[in-house]
Amino acid sequence: MTDDKVKRRLTTVLCADVQGYSRLMEADETGTLETLRRYRTAFAGLVERHDGRIVNTWGDAVIAEFASVVEAVQCAVEIQQEISNQDSDPPHANPMRFRIGINLGDVMVDGSDIYGDGVNIASRLQELAEPGGVVISSSVYDQVHNKLSVGFDCLGQRPMKNVAPMTSYRVAMSGQSAGRRSFPVDESLPPQGRAVADSETGARWIDSRHEPSTWMGFVSDWLAKLPRPVAVALTVSGFLILINVFTGMHKIWFHWPVAALLFGALLRTALRQRPEPNSKRDR
């Protein structure tokens, strides 16, 4: 008896494509294809190094999956660094830039291929990324924000085709050094001194991960995870309450505007999250 049950698993999906690929092909087909092949080779090597696998490639796109969320983000950072280094030596007139999106989600498995919202969301996040950039979902951010030395910029909730609005984050890679090192080291030091700096800086970095966050940071992170209308309404409500407190509590008036703000925000959020009729999900 054949088992037709759909297999599913939780995985980290990385989607990448080339910004302006059609324009590059129109300008120089042969050169663009050679560059794409070279970058794909580097891409595959870094994915394997971080214990991932290439799921599919077509055109200029690449889909990969990882068992570890941390390894997926670290791999994406190193991919962008490697491509940037290759483009700058020697400098190219028409550099090829990849956009990368990463999502942690449930997927359907069919042989070696994967399908479902987990893949769709990663693809939509990739569309939000800048050329040479990486954008991650909130589920990825929750797992990696205190495990990597890269910074993260909250993009809020951006509209995405056939995907419910969600909070996303841009990976700020300006301070990230090449390779697997997750903290900056003075490259002018001799190898012995560099090793000592590695261990000392690494110890400080590990300790800093366990420092308690301030209440402002906690509130900021909490608001970032809420739908944008609700977060704005709560922020404005807080200011109204403070104004009422400091102008005298003998007359309480803040509850009326606060109630109106919260009702409007919740109503708007509910309407935005209603599914579109007869909409077809992309792969």
Descriptive notes:
The protein folds into two domains: 7-182, Alpha-Beta Plaits (2-Layer Sandwich), CATH 3.30.70; 228-272. It contains nine helices and eight strands. It has helices at residues 21-27, 29-49, 69-88, 117-128, 138-144, 191-209, 215-225, 228-246, 255-272, and strands spanning 7-18, 52-58, 61-66, 98-110, 113-115, 134-137, 151-160, 163-172. Helix 2 runs antiparallel to helix 3 (69-88) and helix 8 packs antiparallel against helix 9 (255-272). 25% of the residues are buried. Residues 175-213 and 279-283 have low confidence and may be disordered.
Features:
alpha+beta; eight-stranded mixed β-sheet; 2 domains; disordered C terminus; Alpha-Beta Plaits; 283 residues; 9 helices; elongated
Quaternary organisation of the protein chains: single chain
Distance between the termini: 29 Å
Order of helices and strands: EHHEEHEEHEHEEHHHH
Which percent band covers the strand fraction?
A: 15-25%
Contiguous uncertain segments of 5+ residues = 175-213, 279-283
Total strand segments:
8
Per DSSP, the total helix count is 9
User: Can you tell me the CATH class of the largest domain?
Assistant: Alpha Beta
- Return the structural class: alpha+beta
**Shape summary:** elongated
Considering the protein shown, what is the CATH homologous superfamily of the largest domain? Nucleotide cyclase, GGDEF domain
Please outline the major beta sheet.
8 strands, mixed
Q: What is the helix content?
A: 40-55%
- Rg from alpha-carbon coordinates: 23 Å
Number of structural units classed as domains: 2
What is the residue-averaged pLDDT?
A: 79
CATH architecture of the largest domain: 2-Layer Sandwich
CATH-defined topology of the largest domain: Alpha-Beta Plaits
